[in-house]
Specification:
This protein is 19% helix and 38% strand. By secondary structure, it is an alpha+beta fold. A 6-stranded antiparallel beta sheet has the order 3-2-1-4-5-6. Strands 11-10-9-12-19-18 form a 6-stranded mixed beta sheet, with helices on one face. The protein has a 5-stranded mixed beta barrel with strand order 8-13-14-16-20. Helix 3 packs parallel to helix 4. The chain is globular and about 70 Å long.
Length: 464
């Protein structure tokens, strides 16, 4: 019997039945993807893929504690199932006690759709989008622009079963659209991106019109030196910075004095005000349009993520509440070590509590400053302050007296998102956005534009 003819829940049940370990967690991920790619105003490729990955986590009790072993393989057939389970058990017996060992989760109600077939995407997801994209190609061609980019839609059905009786299932759609417009001589470039669940809420014509305006701004080129400038960060740039902040918000690391969230003299900065603006940085698995898994799905342990927490229900969490640091990420194990509440990471991020002005309205209210398109190649410089460095890309524009007057050179920046929140003087209207840098790993975000009076452009970059 092949991997495709065996239902995912049957694979989970068989693996659990084969287990001889003291505890067992099985995760079956059914994945399907559909994509389109284009260049020079013409579609170049399209395709559909499907696959299955099975992860078996075995736990073995011993005198010194509980050990765990994790083995993942793709396209597993029924005949290959027992060797996979035995390999996980052998890995557990061959390792020492797991530092993050906890009792496996119990008492979570079974997902009603656990025994149903996995959800799948197909090229049909682009039924309305593809014709609209073709029309955008025609308008771009007539306007002297070349469009490049790709659209990708992924649907993952995750089935999670445990020896303690959990039977959970989550379907996660994930769509991304990235569109570049370039001048024929390739000296001007503009970018726009969108995150979507089903491609019904993305409009290629609107994106092309937005990029046409930006290419028009770039017809006038100005040179500016490095320095600190009043800067408008669009939602995509804010998302890239704050996603990295969330990834760095380990409760255990903070309690051990190793991060920007560590309190001098010991403890964490929980309860400390980070910004004078009444901002909320939060995650919610049931956030409309940004829905994510409502329970922990952990294929491996590391940091504040633990395989022992698989199936643990997730609740709306305020990381920053009314400008104050409220939560740091923890597993059950790291929460016990640090004395912090249990707060596992959730796969979306929202910043709200600011104003209701659009980015365009914020531009109109700017005397002199810079308007960014997006950030790129973000890297950590100093974990103690969460100082990051990176580059601007695809358009930095000079604003004077409420109007964009031209494009300036790109820059390298050096900023800490934590410090940046403290210096921000305005937050605009929150809207769904696609992070440019982290879009391959984290797509469900909603952010406002931020006005920072002294964003540090540390040096000039000659990239487009």
């Amino acid at each position: 019997m092949s991997a495709r003819t065996t239902k995912p829940y049957e694979i989970v049940e068989r693996a659990l039945a084969l287990s001889r370990a003291d505890g067992c967690v099985v995760i079956a991920d059914e994945q399907s993807t559909a994509n389109l790619r284009w260049a020079g105003n013409s579609l170049t490729t399209n395709g559909v893929t499907r696959g299955r990955t099975l992860t078996v986590i075995a736990t073995v009790d011993g005198v010194e504690g509980t050990a765990s072993g994790v083995v993942s393989r793709s396209a597993v057939t029924v005949d290959e199932l027992e060797p996979l389970v035995r390999a996980a058990e052998a890995a557990a017996r061959g390792s020492g006690p797991a530092e993050d060992a906890q009792p496996l989760v119990t008492g979570v109600a079974e997902s009603p759709e656990f025994t149903e077939a996995p959800a799948e995407t197909s090229s049909a997801v682009f039924a309305d989008f593809a014709p609209a994209l073709g029309e955008a190609f025609a308008r771009a061609r007539a306007g002297g622009r070349e469009l490049y980019g790709f659209a990708n839609h992924e649907l993952v059905s995750s089935y999670l079963g445990t020896s303690t009786g959990l039977r959970l299932r989550h379907d996660q759609p994930n769509g991304t659209l990235e569109l570049n417009a370039k001048s024929p001589d390739r000296t001007r470039s503009a970018w726009a991106g969108r995150s979507t669940r089903d491609f019904k809420d993305v409009d290629p014509a609107a994106l092309d019109a937005e990029l046409a305006v930006r290419l028009g701004w770039a017809e006038r080129r100005l040179e500016l030196p490095a320095g600190r400038y009043e800067t408008l960060l669009p939602p995509t740039a804010v998302a890239d910075l704050l996603i990295y902040q969330l990834w760095s918000a380990s409760g255990r690391d903070a309690a051990e004095g190793r991060t920007v969230f560590s309190k001098p003299g010991g403890g964490t900065r929980a309860g400390e005000r980070l910004t004078g603006l009444p901002l909320n940085l939060r995650s919610n698995p049931n956030e409309p349009g940004l829905e994510s898994a409502p329970f922990v799905i952990a294929h491996s342990s590391g940091g504040d993520r633990s395989v022992f927490d698989n199936g643990l229900p997730l609740a709306p969490t305020d990381w920053v509440r009314e400008g104050e640091l409220n939560r740091l990420t923890t597993s059950r194990h790291s929460a016990a070590l640090s004395g912090l509440p249990v707060a596992p990471a959730i796969d979306n991020l929202i910043l709200d509590g600011g104003g209701d002005r659009s980015l365009e309205e914020m531009v109109s209210a700017t005397g002199r400053g810079l308007l960014l398109t997006c950030l790129w190649y973000i890297r950590e410089v100093d974990p103690a302050t969460l100082l990051l460095t990176g580059l601007t890309r695809d358009g930095v524009y000079l604003v004077e007296n409420g109007e964009v007057v031209g494009e300036v050179n790109n820059f390298r920046f050096n900023e800490s998102p934590v410090d940046l929140l403290g210096r921000a003087v305005e937050a605009g209207r929150t809207e769904k956005t696609l992070p440019r840098e982290w879009g391959d790993w984290f797509t469900r975000a909603a952010m406002p534009a931020l006005r920072v009076p002294d964003f540090n452009m540390s040096s000039v970059s000659r990239g487009v």
